[in-house]
Specification:
Blueprint: E1 4-6, E2 18-37, E3 47-54, E4 69-74, E5 81-88, E6 96-115, E7 128-140, E8 144-145, E9 150-158, E10 167-168, E11 174-179, E12 184-191, E13 195-196, E14 200-217, E15 230-232, E16 235-236, E17 246-249, E18 252-253, E19 258-266, E20 275-276, E21 286-287, E22 297-306, E23 309-314, E24 346-348, E25 353-362, E26 370-378
Antiparallel strand pairs: 1-23, 2-6, 3-5, 3-6, 4-5, 7-14, 8-13, 9-12, 9-14, 10-14, 11-12, 15-18, 16-17, 17-21, 19-20, 19-22, 22-23, 24-25, 25-26
Length: 381
């Protein structure tokens, strides 16, 4: 069996955006601060998105925790008020984050932790907001994403504190949390192609005033492809012969690589020591054994390379050792003869060939194409 050897490693492509964990808080009794625990396993490079829903009131000007940037502040109606923020996690994050309010109000909030978001420009588009009078649904206009595989993220709040009023997320979006305090739902969902998302509608089990926002998270740019991985080994011809091209297949590889070849010889039918070949095509996909290769077994080492790195795989040894081509005495090979075997005679004044054609053999030993044999003489051999 051939063996697979990884020669060099590179980075794997970046993962798609994934929501990894969340944390929430429900304050049915009025408070002047909103304290939300950091989502579990938050680490450097994660992107955090927060939504706060308030029973009126607002976040004070200096009341946003360190490092958080605003997404939205939706306060066009008396109740509810809804806010959005994001943050790229650093090397050392606190156990919780505190927003200070302008007044004590009932509230609810949550934070979602994402992997695979572009940490330089986490938002892929501008935010859109909307509010509405009492109704059983709330629709936020769509956004237009600039990058394929972005993740839509939106928050919808209604004028209620109880979860007895149910909320249903827009099609294609999945709730990350759905809580009371101030009744709201945060949801997200992938958008495979860049472009318009279309409006997003939340539905409610009872009529309520509502307010919401919608944006999109930008995925990390794809890194280089992974190192090529071999799944089907290379192969070589079964019966190599001196002077005859022996072809190889590259096998099957991932990662769309380019290929390099090294042919090797070994005197043993098992075990033994492999030595780099010296004949014509020793670094090509087809090798022509030299006279010194007679009696040796062949294999090919294929090295696959892409931007992620290189890996090599080797074929099994040839089924037979290299043989020496033999042509019977008195037989001449002519590449351009077309007489059928057994014709009375042949004459080629230019080549100086005369005689009776005795055989026509396709792919005979020592011949790349068709071997024509005749008894006679030739001034060219």
């Amino acid at each position: 069996m051939g063996l697979l050897l990884v020669l060099a490693a590179g980075a794997n492509p970046a993962s798609a955006i994934t929501r990894a964990s969340t944390s929430t808080v429900v304050n049915a009794t009025a408070t002047g601060t909103v304290i939300v625990a950091a989502p579990s396993q938050t680490q450097s490079g994660d992107v955090l998105v927060a939504c706060l829903a308030l029973n009126g009131g607002s976040v004070s000007g200096l009341g946003v925790p360190l490092g958080w940037s605003p997404i939205a502040s939706v306060t066009a109606i008396t109740n509810p008020h809804v806010f959005g923020y994001y943050k790229v996690a650093g090397a050392s994050e606190p156990a919780s984050y505190t927003w200070t309010l302008t007044s004590s109000v009932a509230n609810g909030a949550g934070i979602a932790r994402y992997l695979g978001v572009d940490t330089t420009s986490p938002l892929d588009t501008t935010v859109v907001t909307a509010t509405g009078a009492t109704a059983t649904s709330g629709t936020v206009p769509g956004v237009t994403t600039a990058t394929a595989n972005a993740t839509l993220a939106g928050c919808m709040a209604v004028n209620s504190s109880a979860t007895t009023i149910t909320m249903t997320a827009p099609a294609g979006m999945t709730p990350a949390w759905d809580i009371g305090g101030k009744r709201h739902q945060y949801a997200d969902g992938p958008q495979a192609s860049a472009g318009a998302s279309g409006p997003k509608t939340w539905t409610f089990s009872a009529s309520r005033e509502w307010a919401g926002w919608l944006t999109a998270l930008r995925p990390q740019a794809a890194g280089p492809p992974g190192v090529p991985v071999n799944s089907v080994l290379p192969t070589v011809c079964a019966a190599p012969a001196v002077g005859v091209g022996c072809g190889a297949t590259n096998g099957t590889w991932s990662g769309a690589p380019t290929f390099a070849h090294q042919w090797q010889t070994n005197p043993s039918s098992s075990g033994g020591t492999w030595t780099d070949a010296t004949g014509v095509g020793k670094n090509l996909a087809s090798y022509t054994p030299a006279a010194g290769d007679a009696g040796l077994f062949l294999r090919v080492v294929v090295t696959a390379t892409n931007a992620g790195g290189s890996a090599s795989a080797q074929s099994a040894r040839s089924a037979a050792a290299v043989t020496t081509s033999t042509v019977p005495a008195g037989t001449v090979a002519l590449g351009h003869m077309d007489e059928p075997a057994g014709s009375a005679s042949m004459s080629d004044a230019v080549g100086g060939h005369t005689g009776t054609l005795t055989s026509v053999t396709a792919g005979g030993p020592g011949f790349l194409n068709t071997a024509y044999g005749f008894n006679g003489s030739s001034s060219s051999v």
